[in-house]
Structures are given as structure tokens and as C-alpha cells.
Amino acid sequence: MKGLKIICDYFLYCGIGKDEYNAVRKDAYVSNFILWRTLHVLMVVAFGFLFVSSLLNDLFKINRAFYLFAFVYSAIALCFFFILKKDSLISQFLIYLSITVLFLFGCFITQNKPEMPAATFIVFVLITPMFMLGKPIFMTLELCCVSTLFIIWMHMVKPYNIWLTDFVNVVIYTIVGIVLNVIANSIRIKEFVLTREINIQKDTDELTGLRNKGSLTREINEFLVDVLSEKGIMFMLDIDRFKSINDTYGHDVGDRVISQLGCYLAKVFVNNEIVGRFGGDEFIVFIKDTDSLDAARNIATEIINGATDAVLLPDSKEKISVSIGAAIYRGQEKNYSEIFKKADIALYKSKANPENRFYIYEEN
User: CA 281, CA 274: separation in Å to the nearest integer?
Assistant: First the structure.
């Protein structure tokens, strides 16, 4: 049973476990997308060259229609690679569709020369799995299906002795292709896991476990430059009279206060928000895809009230309070520093008025 579980883990999650695989799955999708976009450029060039050659040389004439079909498909698919999102399931489906087209191309080429053992199809069976990153079970199903189709198809068009040679070769190289896909996926996925762990260490604030300043800056910048991102709210908050807390209770308690506030924010914002510690007692929360003033007020009120209850001081009668400045993003700012400056101004104004610990930046 243990051996079967290990095999299942490799075929379903590349040998790293479900949680780790899901954590790097989108990275794998992006890697596939970039690689296969480049391969489609090469496919357009290669099949275009073969089609032109078939017009000029009778040696290639027999496969002219297949070269044209492969060229047209590759060109159309390449256009989609400049439209689709890199980490979408549709992009991954398009890649598998392209793999299927390559295998069918190999079948047609082989059919046109039934007296010759298959070469093109077997090359695709051996090479293609090394260029597909994802759950090996999918490539295994792909290889088994197309190989079965090839064997049945060629049995109807090839002499028996040639077909028998193809049968043995296809079975062997299908198994080899599956093994290569499992090995390649295991190695590459583990590289993604290692890279992710390094990035987490680099981007994580040690005291709170939230994003640090560098990670905040990078992720918010990436959101702002995305042409599809048109709405957002940046909240900048800090702890009122934090210096007094340090002076009264000591820096250990001050660190604990920051840590508790970080834990509270991590529990509240668990979706697609960007949350981190900017430095000292300052935190940033960036809410994506909304520019509602009511939402901004509600979120700020929730933070103000929740932080007071979540953070405990040695003197149970004492409570902390936080001040918040907010800046609404409506597609104008394209740099982190631009919207940060507005949120910072709003925070300054909120602290200047103890009666109102929340302020939204207003354009002059």
C-alpha cells in the first residue's frame, strides 16, 4: 500500500504532496504558458517552411495538406497565447490541444508512408512529455490515448510486419515518455517549491509573518500596472502612541503588540488582499477590485474596533487604538509611491484629529 501511495503521489502531485503542489500550481501554469508560446513560434516557422518546401520540392508534396493544416493551427493558437491569461485553465487546455495536434500530425505522416516504420510519431511520444509541466496523470492519459489510436489506426493501413514493429516501439516509447514526464515534472516542480520557499523567506516580515515592505511594494506595483486592474483601496494604519507603549512596558511588549496586530490582520484578510507590515508599527492593507467609499469606511471601522479587542496589553484596563488613512485607486496611479503618498497624507490627517481615527484622501 505504501508503494502504491508513493506512485499515486508522483502521478497526481509530482511526488511533493497535494498542498505543496497546489501552492506552486499557478507557477507551473505560467511556466507552461511561456514555454509553449515560444514552441508555437517555432512550430509556425517549422511548418511554414515545410509547406513552402512542399510547393517547391516533390519530395515533400505528399504531406503538403498536413503541413498547411499544422501551420494554420499553430498560427491561430499562437494568437490565443497573446490573449489568454498565463495561469488560466483555458491556456493549459490549449497546450494539451496542441500536443494532440502534434500527435495527429505524426499519425498522418506515418499513414502516408505505410511501408516505413513510424518515426515522427515516436519522436513526439518521446520528446513532448518533457515539455509539459503539470500532473503527470494527464500526460499519461494523453500518451495512452494517442498511442492506442495510433496502433489501431496503423493496423488498418500498414503491412503486418511493419505494424508489429511500430506496435513494439510505440508501447516501449510510450512507457519511456510517461517515465520521462514523471521525472521531469518531479524535478521541475521541486525547483518551484524551493524557489517559493526562498521567496517566502525573503518577502516575509519576521515579527508578524505578513509581507514585508519589499513584498508590499512589488505586489501593489504589479497590480497597478495591470491593465485589467482599475479599482482598489489602500489602507495605511499605525498604532496610536506606540512610543508610549514601548516606554511604559518595554520593547518586548511593543514587539508583542505588533505581532498580535499582524495576527489579527492575517485572520481578517484571507482572500486576495495584499496585507503587510511597512515598518515599525505601520501596516498596509490593499483591497483589490473595489473603490466603494462605503466599503472603505466599513473596512476601516472593522479594523479599528477589531484591533482594539485583539491586541492585549499587560494592564488589562489599557487598550490600544489605531489610526487609518485610505486612498482610493481608480486606475490613475501607476506606481506604488503615488498611491502610498496619498494614503500617508490621509493617515497624517486622521492622527491630527483624535475624534476621527479614519480619513480618506481627497483630491484637491
Answer: 17
